[in-house]
Amino acid sequence: MPLVPHMTHQDIVTYLRRELLPSVRGDIFPLLRTRHGAPFATVRLVLCYCDYLGALYSGYRRRKGGRPSQIAMSKKALRFIRDILGQIDPLYRLRGKLLYDIYRHGTVHLYAPKHYRNRKGRHLLWYIVKARSPWSHSGIGTMHHLRITRVSPGQRSAFPVSLFRLFFDLRRAIQRFAHLITQEQQSGGSRLRNRWVSTANEICKPTIRRW
Length: 211
Fold this sequence. Notes:
Elements: H1 9-32, H2 39-58, H3 74-88, H4 91-110, E1 116-117, E2 123-129, E3 135-138, E4 141-144, E5 149-150, E6 156-162, H5 163-187, H6 191-204
Parallel strand pairs: 2-6
Antiparallel strand pairs: 1-2, 3-4, 5-6
Helix pairs in contact: 1-2, 1-5, 2-3, 2-4, 2-5, 2-6, 3-4, 3-5
């Protein structure tokens, strides 16, 4: 079913499992099947899905005076990464903000991931691998998904991501979100559903703009 206003708990679970999960697979898996995994496009898509899911997870409120506010925001995506992806792998709680800034803001706004240098002159480099395992081996050493690793003598470290791990973890996070919605329904709660509905209702409204 599509995203619609005033969804029930069961509507939300059905949407996540039958609409969003197939969409994630259809968008991302063909990229992973290419020779190098389309690294920039893959990380961009995964983290933009986190923008969308973060908005639905966090809810929507208008500004004072009833003025519209932004539906998707970085803080909402980070909340989803911390709370839901963090249940899949605790490293998302620890490194989620760094992941989002280097790999989402970099690829969306600047084509490629960002490269950091701190005031002490130490560099933090992006590093993308296609590996299905969180561990990978290369000419510069052994890497683990989301673990900062010293890559050479001196001032250089890398912040590696695995394309397949991002894909698998996003799918698990969507399943986890659906499970939390089901648990809430069974317990008689409504907080997650209310947040979802507030966002979905706003998304479903037409944008008022000249065209």
